[in-house]
Write a structure and sequence with these properties.
TIM Barrel; four-stranded mixed sheet; alpha/beta; binds zinc ion; 11 strands; five-stranded parallel sheet
């Protein structure tokens, strides 16, 4: 197995499932919205294939249940299949028991589609924070080996601003297990960490910023972890009525994501989360 320096990941969800648009698309209506997942996934797969790169796909169980062929295609292409939970709920709304059920349900769906039991997890909207730290008890109990849900930034909803921004081992609060935390990338400026791993920030900042971040991570010997979503590769998606700030966050520079991803994959050495962790003898 090759030993890539940085990790690249995709949270497999629809444009109408983002926390930003919860009001416009209640869960009960999701099945009545026309799916767009194929558009983004086809473009991502094309870029990964052209650049001979393996990635980690954190699937919503809800998506894998309705589009199991994407799990199959990931496996055929040698990508890693991981869990993004069932239907994109904040962990503190699920509660500890609810989270265990949500993980189990998603595992079953992924395995029914042919995947192995997932060993990696990313929570909806980075919602492992100090108030949902019990999530590590559940993840360890269910045998997860890595997690990418803690965002070491200051943010009104999520974030643990003083958390280690590199890869670290977290012991579950009940003391019974541990796993590796591999947070999405942040950039340190004057003692504070700023988000630099993906999402709206990746589309908003010029590509030169992301390049500089990746070079900085290489100097720190800290593997970067980037994340993107299929809907970010779909500039033709239906436009949603929402506040100007929500629309900006969702739609800014959607038409540039694909070429930017491809430029990064060509210039830097990316792989799946498990490949990066294995290359550092961590799993
Ligand atoms: Zn998500």
């Amino acid at each position: 197995m090759s030993q890539p320096r940085h990790a690249i990941s995709f949270d497999v969800e629809e444009y109408f499932q983002v926390a930003n648009f919860y009001e416009q698309f209640p869960r009960a209506q999701w099945d009545s919205v026309e799916p767009r997942i194929d558009v983004g996934m086809d473009r991502i797969f094309g870029a990964l294939e052209r650049q001979r790169t393996k990635a980690t796909f954190f699937f919503l169980g809800w998506i894998a249940e309705r589009h199991p062929h994407w799990v199959t295609r990931c496996l055929e292409a040698g990508h890693e299949v991981a869990s993004h939970g069932y239907d994109h709920q904040f962990l503190w709304n699920l509660g500890k028991e609810g989270f265990a059920d949500d993980l189990a349900r998603t595992e079953e769906i992924l395995m029914a589609a042919g995947a192995e039991r997932p060993s990696g997890f990313r929570a909806c909207t980075f919602t492992i924070t100090r108030r949902s730290w019990w999530a590590f008890d559940v993840l360890c109990e269910r045998g997860y080996r890595f997690d990418s849900s803690v965002h070491p930034v200051r943010h009104p909803v999520y974030g643990v601003h003083d958390f280690e921004p590199g890869i670290s081992r977290v012991t579950s609060p009940d003391g019974k297990g541990s796993l590796l935390e591999f947070p999405v990338t942040t950039y340190p400026i004057a003692g504070r960490n700023f988000p630099a791993g993906g999402g709206g920030y990746f589309r908003l900042y010029p590509l030169a910023v992301t390049r500089a971040v990746l070079r900085k991570m290489e100097r720190l010997d800290r593997p970067a972890a980037l994340y993107m979503h299929p809907w970010e590769f779909d500039p033709e998606q239906p436009r949603v009525r929402a506040s100007a700030s929500k629309r900006f966050r969702h739609y800014v520079n959607l038409d540039r994501t694909l070429s930017r991803l491809e430029a990064l994959l060509a210039e830097f050495d990316f792989g799946s989360f498990s490949q990066v962790l294995a290359g550092r003898d961590l799993i």
